[in-house]
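Protein Record: Sequence and Backbone Structure Tokens
======================================================
Tokens: labelled as protein backbone structure tokens, with as many entries as the chain has residues.
Task: work out the structure tokens from the sequence, keeping to the layout shown below.
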Amino acid sequence: MEHNTFALILVVIVGLSFDFTNGFHDSANAMATSIATGALKPRFAVVLSGAANLVGAFLSLSVAATIAKGIVDQGSVDIFVVFAGLAGGVAWNVATWYFGIPSSSSHALIGGVIGATLVHAGSSAVIWSGVASKVIIPALFAPTIAMGVATVATWVAYQLARASDETTSKRYFRSGQIGTATLVSLAHGTNDAQKTMGILTLALVANGSIGADATTPNWVIVSCALAMALGTSVGGWRIIRTLGKGLIEIAAPQGFAAEATSAAVILSSSHFGIPLSTTQVCSGSVVGAGLGRGEAVRWGVFGKMAITWVVTLPAAAAVGALSYGLVKLIGGNAGVGVMAALLALGCGGVFLVSRKSSVNPNNVNDEWEGAPTAEHKVAA
């Protein structure tokens, strides 16, 4: 197998860039509710989340193994496929971040790789049974399960709160949120950081740098963990605002229940090597926290999120397929270089446009337009 050092270097750079975007994209999962309830100051929250993500990334490699071996046939993938797949994931993450939509970074990455693989080697190179069991089925059930568990957990939290006055219970639940939010970040590291580790392992196998049965190299583990932690520490304020303020008017007991639920579901999926969408789990938990209190849920906002979840995999697959096609059309390393430059320019352009309507730590908790009304409430 011919080694391509130039393409591999760009794959590693784009892979770590994806991990960085995954970090700031998903920092909302762990810290949005704690920021919204005032349990944690915004800047401190994302730094704490980054540190916990860093630790979590070293706790398990089960998800990395699933991504590297369970989605596409390693023997049918080359280094250009991996690059194009990563490009699809980065493009989708940046686009959904701009619109403040908590979409699945996991499905963006997997979709990008599937799309590039389909163009390169055809449908037979995709392990559809693995896609169904490890991606699609969990995507259908995870948010629903999280919603149900969070509904019950919220009801229990408010039953416990009856034993003390409102001020005291708020203080206790806010203190508890520091622990649960940190646990969600830890869980996020055990799941999401593994995905890029798996993709870079796949790239190394495709390039002939390591054998097909090799484990993830230590340098891959460390670099992915650091990139994820750095991205999380930056804070994706647009998505933090949507998840913390856009779905429900959240109180401390609800935030505590939602975070505890999310951590339990994500850690369970990491244990079984399932590359779960942490975004879907956390969003489902927040909605469940609203239902458990019988309070208003902005179903319009949640509906837009759900539609995005449905289209993420095919949309990222389309970008991955297009990226691979352009790389091959231009040819080899020149194609990779051109696509990397276009990706960087596109992401930079989105960032510059986003400055016109900046969301930052100072306005992330501003009131959401279109506050829930009695008509939106559901029965307790």
Observations:
- The chain is about 75% helix and 0% strand.
- The longest helix spans residues 166-206.
- The chain has one domain: 5-363.
